[in-house]
């Protein structure tokens, strides 16, 4: 089953967060939603995850797992227990949830940090734990809300390459919300550009580029410029 | 180290004032007189300390139990919250010296009115701090658990309760520090034992050294209880980094 939003509108009181948004993602596709701050990107993910209902339009989605903007890790749980949280909520006993999480720790570069609390982990490691937790929810759709927004540029680049690799190994349908156009071009099959509030779809760009992609690839740079121009970046519009 | 120096200097100054005859020793006994009273009246004071400590510990235990029950049920149920919040807050406006004799009248001279008095003074900070802690949860984590279809019970157990622990401990520490007040007022209203009782009698007999000795033990009791819970807190709430957390946004 595909993920599909049709003419979705969502308002909070007088503030219209999303207006007439239509987008679709096929199975195992990565769709990036890009737009300026406050364009209703997070609202979009809440709709897909079923945390709220649209005021108008239709949201059809298989069960989706959310990775909140700031990692949402629980500070009193170890990395292992945080990663296995979804399993525990699903009713599995603690030991089985831990075992399920631990099976991925080496591949996620988290080995040796099983018992560490989030405050003892680096920003990149926290995001990996949060992503593993999202993955272990065992849902066909992953909703990632600015997963690397809080990281420094260097770590962000590493994490983007890492996420691309992780998704290549374990394909899922991904809805990736970001304000970083380059990140969208590097990771997504399709990019949906949203306008400032109220969020409307400005343009949908296909990204038919082979993977792995590098930020210096000519095609990547071109697409990035096109996306920025469509978003109305003042510097580029005049160029 | 610095604290010890300050206390020692203050004690020396106090001793000099009394010995020099600036202050009447009947009104303000010298520290050495207090120490002497602690020693000569040690069997009386030890018994009193045991009595008062028992009242305080029982009362605190009751306060924590009631505070947790109230805080959680007010958090979980809107009708309960609406019904109880004014009463909980109002309970703190009741003047303790006025209500203490009533407790004695109704419950007699035994342990019950003292425990109740301590609990009345102590349950409020526990209730309010727990209640606020349960509500003040990281919105991202809340969203996350909802997206995982966590039940109400799971949200309470996995997210809200642990996240409320630090503020709850703050409430319990405040309660531990003021618990002694409740016990003393209850003993004043009607008792033949306890540090509060001895304090009252010694005051009447102008045995100011003994009164100060009893007060000193009340001090020590409050500090010891506070320290005990602070220690417990560090054991239980072991996830907050000791150093300052990273800067805000």
Description:
The complex is a heterodimer of chains A (about 240) and B (about 250). By secondary structure, chain A is α/β, with parallel strands linked by helices. Chain A is about 35% helix and about 25% strand. In chain A, a hairpin with a 6-residue loop joins strand 8 (about 190-195) and strand 9. Chain B is an all-alpha fold. Chain B is built from ten helices and no strands. Chain B has helices spanning about 1-20, 30-40, 40-75, 80-90, 95-105, 110-135, 140-145, 150-190, 195-205, 210-235. In chain B, helix 3 runs antiparallel to helix 4 (about 80-90), helix 3 runs antiparallel to helix 8 and helix 3 (about 40-75) crosses helix 9 (about 195-205). The interface of A and B includes residues 75, 90 and 120 of A.
Give me the secondary-structure topology.
The complex is a heterodimer of chains A (239) and B (249).
Chain A (H helix, E strand, L loop, with lengths): L2 E10 L2 E11 L4 E5 L6 H8 L7 E5 L3 E4 L11 H5 L1 H5 L4 H12 L17 H14 L4 E5 L7 H17 L3 E6 L2 H7 L2 E5 L6 E6 L11 H13 L3 H5 L1
Parallel strand pairs in A: 3-7, 3-8, 5-6, 6-7
Antiparallel strand pairs in A: 1-2, 1-4, 8-9
Helix pairs in contact in A: 7-8
Chain B lengths: L1 H18 L11 H10 L1 H35 L1 H13 L5 H12 L3 H25 L3 H9 L4 H38 L5 H10 L3 H29 L13
Tags for this model:
heterodimer, A: 239 residues, alpha/beta, three-stranded antiparallel β-sheet, 24% strand, B: 249 residues, mainly alpha, 10 helices, disordered C terminus
């Amino acid at each position: 089953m595909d993920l599909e939003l049709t003419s979705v509108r969502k308002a909070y009181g007088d503030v219209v967060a999303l207006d007439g948004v239509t987008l679709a993602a096929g199975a195992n596709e990565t769709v990036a939603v890009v737009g300026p701050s406050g364009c209703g990107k997070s609202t979009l993910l809440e709709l897909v995850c079923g945390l709220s209902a649209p005021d108008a339009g239709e949201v059809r989605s298989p069960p989706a797992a959310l990775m909140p903007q700031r990692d949402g890790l629980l500070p009193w749980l170890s990395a292992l227990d945080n990663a296995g949280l979804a399993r525990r909520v699903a009713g599995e006993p603690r030991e089985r949830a831990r075992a399920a999480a631990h099976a991925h720790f080496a591949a996620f570069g988290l080995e040796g940090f099983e018992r560490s609390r989030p405050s003892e982990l680096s920003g990149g490691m926290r995001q990996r734990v949060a992503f593993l937790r999202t993955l272990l929810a065992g849902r066909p759709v992953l909703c990632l809300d600015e997963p690397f927004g809080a990281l420094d540029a260097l770590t962000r680049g590493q994490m983007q390459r890492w996420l691309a690799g992780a998704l290549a190994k374990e394909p899922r349908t991904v809805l990736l919300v970001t304000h970083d156009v380059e990140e969208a071009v590097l990771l997504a099959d399709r990019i949906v550009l949203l306008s400032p509030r109220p969020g409307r779809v400005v343009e949908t760009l296909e990204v038919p580029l082979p993977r792995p992609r590098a930020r210096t690839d000519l095609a990547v740079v071109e697409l990035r410029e096109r996306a920025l121009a469509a978003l109305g970046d003042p510097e580029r519009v005049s160029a | 180290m610095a604290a010890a120096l300050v206390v020692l200097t203050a004690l020396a100054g106090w001793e000099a004032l009394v010995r020099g005859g600036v202050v009447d020793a009947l009104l303000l006994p010298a520290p050495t007189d207090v120490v002497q009273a602690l020693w000569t009246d040690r069997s009386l004071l030890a018994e009193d300390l045991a009595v008062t400590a028992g009242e305080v510990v029982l009362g605190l235990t009751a306060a924590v139990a009631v505070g947790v029950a109230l805080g959680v049920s007010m958090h979980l149920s809107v009708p309960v919250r609406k019904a109880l919040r004014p009463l909980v807050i109002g309970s703190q406006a009741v003047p303790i010296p006025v209500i203490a004799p009533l407790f004695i009248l109704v419950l007699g001279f035994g342990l019950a009115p003292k425990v109740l008095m301590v609990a009345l003074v102590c349950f409020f900070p526990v209730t309010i701090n727990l209640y606020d802690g349960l509500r003040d949860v990281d919105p991202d984590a809340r969203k996350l658990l909802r997206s995982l279809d966590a039940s109400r019970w799971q949200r309470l157990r996995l997210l809200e309760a642990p996240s409320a622990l630090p503020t709850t401990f703050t409430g319990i520490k405040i309660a531990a520090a003021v618990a002694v007040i409740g016990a003393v007022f209850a003993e004043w209203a009607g008792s033949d034992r306890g540090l509060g009782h001895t304090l009252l009698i010694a005051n009447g007999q102008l045995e100011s050294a003994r009164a100060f000795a009893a007060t000193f033990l009340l001090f020590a009791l409050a500090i010891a209880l506070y320290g005990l819970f602070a220690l417990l807190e560090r054991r239980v709430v072991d996830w907050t980094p000791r150093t300052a957390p990273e800067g805000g946004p």
